[in-house]
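Input record (one chain):
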Amino acid sequence: MYHDVLIPTDGSAGVDAAVSYGIDLARISQATIHALFVVDTGIESEDLGVDGRTELRTLGEQRGRKATDVIKAAADDYDLTTISEIRTGIPYRTIVDYVDEQNIDLVVMATLGQAGPIFGHLGSTTERVITLADVPVLAVHPEADGEVPLEYTRYNHVVVPTDGSDVAERAAAQALDLAEHFGADVHVVYVIDTTTYDLQDTPRSIVGLLKEGGQNAVDAIAADARERNLPVTTDVLRGSPEGKILEYADGVDADLLVMGTRGFGAAPDRLLGSTTARVLRETETPVLTVS
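The corresponding structure, as predicted from the sequence alone:
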């Protein structure tokens, strides 16, 4: 399913769960693990001078070797090939460049790193990678289960929110591929956004169209799931999309959410403010984003 899996690391404990999830997905098809540490030149002060910057980068490279060695050691336990790389630059730019250069087909990143809550402020590395990379990105909260299971049983319930958009369909395809590999149940949900529509004041014909559109969207994904002999449930709900998605995921004890980065309501050039971004900020469940 995946051939080259990139796990960026900053050497912090917050990355441990992401490493576990990355290895678990890589071993599905014996993919190559790429362990990348970026020495952040964006934090260098001009007052440091040449010697100061050189010393800072040397310390960063030392930390990077330790961090990538940890990933290699974990991958070696499962006989996975590992490529370790230490680079200098702005982390998110370097990661996105590496994805393109090495034909990476999955990035697995932590939502919390050395700098603290990644999704709590504008311009975080993970959010920017999700926005700019053309490949799926799995965002893993540090509180996610960090143990690699002996058998392929990490995912039992996969939740697929959809708004019927093309990117949601691409996300659903990834979700069904994973569900097949892991033998997971699939749960498809569409939320009629009551923050956009006041359904009490909206004409019944419009409400009917919204319901019909939502049902068509979940039914299309469910039909694909049944063709693969996957157990599947569908729901069309009303409310705040991120709130209902999170509530729904908790209700089915979700192990994974798979979402498009931009739906019908998102700005065309950025992720910030979208339902996906808000879900990422709130959930401890791993979220696979697909562009």
